[in-house]
Amino acid sequence: MLVSFTDKVEIKDAKRLGNGQMVFDAAVARVGVYRYHGSELGRPELGMVGVFRPESSIFDEASLASLAHVTVTDDHPTTDVTPKNWRDLSRGWTEGQIARDGNVIRVPMLIADAGLQDKIDAGKAEVSPGYRADITEQTGVHDGESYQFVMGPPRYNHVAVVDKARGGSKMRLGDSWPSTPIIGDRTVTTKTIIFDGVPIEATDAAAAAITKLQSQVTDAAAAHAVTIAAKDSEIGKQAAEIVARDAKIAELEKTVADSALTPARLDAAVAARTLVVDSAKKLIGSTFVADGKTEAQIRKEAVTAKIGDKAATMSDESIIAAFDTLAALIGDSKNEADPIRDALNNGGGQITDAETRAKSARQKMIDALTNPDAAEKAA
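The chain above was modelled as a monomer; its predicted structure follows.
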């Protein structure tokens, strides 16, 4: 797999020539294990990994040759340096005297651009070679450091002068994801955290901030869920109340429909009231007036007329029963015999035993209606 890389090394012992050009040399590569973030290798799911650069790759003749006479740029360009963009990007070049210094490659550089020289004088004091190299997955250990990939011989494209703030004085690969970046003179440890499913290499302070943010997001989501649940519960209660009201309305509508005065019901109601009024007139006499009175009032007035104040303590059901019984006993004055009436109509004649028994039976009935307990004892 071919991958693009950048390293970081510190500029040391920069000198100016008589013609105003600036020269220095830098150790741009070494044998060893470098730390990369998986995203730099096209494998973001891996987090930080080790890439071993063996001696056979670092000191490969073709690789060393590619480092001679390459363009020096002010920061890394967004694309490789080519003949088409060289005039715009070039601020200097590397010399051809590439040298091995132990396990390190050293290369002399020349800065011809006055603007970049001023930046270097002001503290822009690191160089970062940009190159491509094949890597293969292979695990192992070198000088006590484990690795998961092995790098093939690099093919250099340019060397960029970069700000010191972006890296330390030690040589590094993958300057975007340093395992132990240096800020000023202070070494800062980093850790890999997962944010929204993406692994991020961050300093302890940044990791703490991100973790706090994640917690706040989680808490906000939980609070939102509680609010939604409460709203759903409230909506559910309102829906239940609406269903209950609809059921009540339906019940009332049915009651109204059932109680509606159809012609048949009206005829029945008139007939029933007429029967009650006629019976009351028979019990009370011709002086009885039914206008403006309910059937219950009429019944109670008739029963009171027959049995006196005892009717005042009787229940509605007892009044109805007494009224119906009294009305039945009186019967139709034109068609039914009334022993009491007949005896009185005989001019005070003798009342027969049958008449006496009928009168006694009527009185017992009245007593039973007005005082059930006394009637039961008498029986």
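The mean pLDDT is 77.
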